[in-house]
Structures are given as C-alpha cells and as structure tokens.
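Chapter review: from sequence to fold.
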Amino acid sequence: MIWNKIEWKNIETYVFNLQIQIYDSSKINNYNKMFYLQRKLINSKEAKLLAIRKITQDNRAKKLLGLDNLFKLTPLQRVLMLKNMILNGKSSPIKRVFISKANGKTRPLGIFTIEDRCKQMLVKFAIEPQWEANFDNNAYGFRPGYSAADAKRVITNQMRVPKYFLDADIEDCFDNINHKSLIKKLNTIPMIKHQIKAWLKAGIIENTANLKNIELNERGSPQGSIISPLLCNIAFNGFEKFILKKFSRDEVKIVRYADDFMIMGKKLNNILKAKTLAEKFLETIGLRLSKDKTRIGHTLETLNKKEFNGKPGFDFLGFYFRNWKVSIHRGIKNTRGIKTTFIQESRPSKASILKHKSNLRMILRKYRSQPREAMIKRLSQSIKGWTNYMNVSKSTKTFSLMDGWLWKALWKWAYNRYKSAKRAKLACFNIKGWNFGFINQGKRFILDRHDKVKTRKYFKIKTGASIYNSKLKLYFAERMSLHNSRFKRLKNLLKKQKYKCELCKLTFTPNDSNIELHHTLIGGARIGEIQFVHGHCHDAIHSKKKNI
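The token string follows.
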C-alpha cells in the first residue's frame, strides 16, 4: 500500500455512511443493529486509515509529545501503523505535563502515545454518532457543529426577562469522574468498553527520567486525550432531563458547555430546588459543586441574603451577562412587543480580557529578540482568535481599548529593543496611521488590530441537530461561515464551490479539522484564483513525491 495514492474520498464516504447508520439505529433504539455497525466500523481498514491520517497528518495543533516522543509520522510509518490498530484492551502509560490556568494555578494534561491517540480516534468514530442521537438539547460543548456562541445565544434569549441564576462550578471535573458509572453508561460493544477502561486506568508518568515510577489512576478522565471531551459529555448526559422532569415547562432553563453549566429561572425557589437536583445527579458520577465558586444571584437586582453572593450578573464562557435598569424609552421589547424598563448586556468579561493581555505580554517577551515578521504573525494569530470568539457580544468598545493598551505595550517593546524613540519609530511604526508595522524589501508587514473585527449576528443551531443526520449535511456546511472568520470573509467562494472541497468534491463538515486555501498554480506559478480544499488534499496537491 502506498500512502500518497490512497483514495480518501472513497474511504471518508464509507466511514461517514456507517456513522450515519449508527446514528439512525441509536435514534430508534435499535441496539443490536447499532452494535453490529460499531463492530464493523472498528474492524474496517477504512476507519483505521482515516483515524491514522487525522492524528498523524491532519493535526496542525501544538506538538504535545507522549512517551514515544512522536508527533507526526512519515507515509511509510503511517502504513506500518495500520497493523497495530487493534483494540486489545491495553494502554501505554500517560505522560503528564502541566499548563497554566487563568487563575494562576496549573492544570494537568495527560498525553498518550501516538498509537493510543490513533486508537482513540477510531473509537470516537464508532461511539460519537451513537451519543449524538441522544445528547441533551442544551449541551453545546465539544460537539461537532456546536460552539460557545450557541450557548451564549440561549442565555441572551433567556435574559429578555430578568431572572435568578445558578452559576455552577464543579470541583476538578475531569480528575474525579467515577470510572464505574461512566463505563456502565457507555452502552456499547465489550471491545470498546474494555479499551476505554484501559485508557481511563492507564498509569501516569510525571518524571520521564524515571519510567518505572508509574502512578495509578483510579478516578477521572485524562485531560488532553482525543476522547476525554466525548467521555465527559457522556458522563453528563441526562443531566438536563433529570432536572427538568421535576418542573413545569419554562420554569427553569439549563445551558451546559462540557462541565460548565448555568440554570436560570424566574423564581428563586426553583433555582434552589434545581441546585439540589444538580447535586444529586453529580453525586452519581463522582462529582460535586464547589462551595466557594458556585453562587446564586439575579441578572438585575442585588440579593441581600447572606447565603448568596448578591452581585447582579455573571461570567460564563468568557462573557459577562447582566440586565440594567433604564427608562422605558430605552428598554427592550418583550415577547408581546411591549417596552420594558431594562436592557440586557453581554460583553467580554474582565477575566477574559486579563487573560488575553497576559497572552499578548508573553508573546512580546518571547519575541524580544526575534525577527519582527515572526512577532507580528504570532500576535495577529492571537488577536484574530480572541476577537473572532468575542465578536458575537457587545465588544466594539473593548476592542478599541485593547488596541490602545497594545499600542503602548508595543511602543515600550520597540523602545527597549532599539534604545531610541527615533529608531523605534523608523523600525516599527513607519506605516501611515501609526500602526505597528514596517516595509521590508517592498513588502508590507502590518499587525492586525482588534477594532478591525466587527460585531456579528449569530444564529443558534437547530435544537437536536447533528452532523450525522443525513438530512442536515448541507445545513452544517452552510453554517461553517459562522464559526470560521476565513469562511465568512470568503463565503461567496465557498458558495461557488457548493460547500465542497475543490479536489475531492466531498462536502465540508465540522469534523474536517483542517480546511485550507489553495492558490491555483499554472506552470508552477501562482495566479490570483484561490480554492478551499481539505488539508490532506492540499498536501497531495503540493507533494512532489508520488510514492513512499
């Protein structure tokens, strides 16, 4: 088998059709057929090849290395990996690394070997469609086609009327999930259950200098693995139904993003009752609410009771939500079209702004003596990512203030580097308008600004929609411009391509982790025409070697 000659279109079509059948079988509770299809997919060469490609070729993310110190493989190594893609109920030890959190603390990440990551992707192919058919309607985290903007939209819709809320925080969610309850909940073939159990209980090595010192893992799901977000969603599934069955319609609203959730309602008693029910459900999966960080409040009024943190408004998913009292002339209209005496606001939270500033400072320190072009590229990436996430809120003023703060930080950086205001101006601010940028050999390098990104209107995803519903394939392809700034800017090009890759002609889906722009070549030279293609299709276009 030659890796560069594999027909990926046929392979992806075969795997996706099996996933659609698994979704349909799970939807009607036809478990015997579902188990048969899962076994068929797990054992198929097509699914194994696709899993290997997604981990070893499509992955353009950070290079987090496991104990095997491998991140990507050569085409020959990928072909040889196919022989090891057998779910044998075993797992290699996990390498533990620590990353910093917004509050200054650290979070442990468990990095598996590249072979285990490929197997996890294979298992994910089989069980994700099963659970997509049954997930709670208001679960928005780590699901293909869903985003934080969907959860944010639900909350703003709820705040058309001021409400009480439960702002919940779970103590070390990923580290404390009960293994037995999770394995019991999986409802899949034994082969997959045994393999997931092996990953959950895989030994942890923190000091790579001493590989014999392996720490046992009795609780939790290792953060950083391919499958852990899906396992978290499975553990939490049923949370919404468990609480809502105790209430009448519209008495409370639950919005969940992975292990973060909000409960909102018009009556305080309903929120207190919902909190008790939430604690009962969490107890079944080995979790509990944090007494210090969980709070009950109101979106408009200050609560004076001692047991509540009475400050109005709350932070959720990096946004700040609150209602404000205004005159009836400025108030929003309710569902009956009648003016009210309040408005609602959602904007970037203070914690999110401070974290973004910290990231920008870190980049400036790291690139203190690096080429200016590299520093501009890295800063622009950070700015684009943050602004494209935040621009579904009232963020115009925040973006302008961030540009003012960043300009001062850049001037200080340039002055310290060139030891003179005049040299700093000539080297880093010689573009019209006092933008940070310069001209080198006739080419302009200009830093992207926050305020160039405008706020946008976001349309929430259909309730219960899934990418594995064959009737919604085009719906999800059309929605991709809502999540990707490049798609939004070039949505007419995407529409012209009928939402398909120009090379393989497959419709783009949210599971396509890497979609790139290809500049058309004629005689080896670029022309003005560009096309959207899959990352692996782009590799195939530019690959000079046709054989391994």
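Two observations follow directly from the output. The CA atoms of residues 4 and 544 lie 10 Å apart. The two ends are 9 Å apart (CA to CA).
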